[in-house]
Design brief:
Largest sheet: 4 strands, mixed
Distance between the termini: 35 Å
Shape: globular
């Protein structure tokens, strides 16, 4: 007798993990500690050296492990080691694109690309033993604050300093920032500026996102979540420490967005 098969809803699984963290008052993309390794905090595969991308960054940043290096069970055994007994892996997802030939009614054929979302389990190197990691070939050297300032200046965004708030004004295409001395430390300053620069990418002359929503609306909450994640991904890439958590009102709005749209 055939068993009933229920396919995994990976969109819902991933969204539920994020929602669970937010409901505990913890944003899963925040890493409140320093990493003394080069390459910032960006999660990457310990064997290939390639950075994880998209939603996988957030899923792996949510781990309590300090190392940004991850690998599969097979990769651990191929390195002569093993995953310690009882360790629980993290789910990551990967898009695969399969091509299928379809015949039309007129006898001609066309090729259709079908995207498939697959799940894999990875383990942090801290969950493994007896492994010798290869030297990471494409590691990015730690970026110094002055270099980061130069990168930000090269973007060409109009930024004014000295105000009492950090915000992006779509109508003026301008970012307002307090002086950096008003922040607790340089990391807090850069994390905030990267948040506002993510808003800046959404203007009509760039990515044309909906920036007109007022606080409490769906569009406002979605845009704030985009900016928060954009800042988190950039901080992980650049080695900027993130330790602030947005106000509870923001979290409540983010939860509304996530619960209404698992994608």
């Amino acid at each position: 007798m055939a068993k009933n098969f229920t396919p995994r809803d990976l969109y819902q699984e991933v969204t539920d993990k994020i929602i669970a963290s937010l409901e505990k008052g913890c944003a899963p993309w925040i890493r409140p500690w320093k990493n003394d390794r080069t390459g910032g905090f960006m999660p990457h595969n310990a064997v290939s050296g390639r950075n994880y991308r998209g939603i996988n960054v957030m899923l792996l940043l949510a781990s309590p492990s300090a190392s940004p290096a991850w690998l599969t069970y097979k990769q651990a055994t191929d390195l002569g080691g093993n995953v310690r007994k009882g360790e629980k892996g993290q789910t990551v997802v990967l898009w695969q694109f399969n091509k299928r030939t379809e015949r039309k009614d007129d006898g001609t054929e066309s090729i259709r690309t079908i995207p498939l979302l697959k799940a894999y389990t990875v383990f942090n190197v801290e969950q493994c033993e007896n492994i010798t990691l290869p030297v990471r070939r494409n590691a990015v050297a730690q970026i110094e604050p002055t270099e980061l300032d130069g990168m930000i200046d090269s973007i060409g965004a109009h930024i004014t300093y000295g105000g009492a708030r950090a915000c992006f004004w779509p109508g003026y295409d301008r970012i307002d920032m307090p002086n950096r001395g008003a922040f607790k430390n340089l990391d807090a300053y850069h994390a905030t500026l990267l948040h506002e620069l993510t808003h800046w990418t959404g203007s009509t002359s760039r990515l044309a996102r909906d920036l007109g929503g007022r606080f409490g609306t769906q569009s406002y909450a979605a845009e704030e979540l985009i900016a928060e994640l954009g800042s988190a991904f950039l901080c992980a890439e650049l080695g900027v420490q993130v330790e602030n958590l947005q106000h509870a009102d923001y979290i409540a709005n983010w939860l509304t967005v996530l619960k209404n749209d698992k994608r």
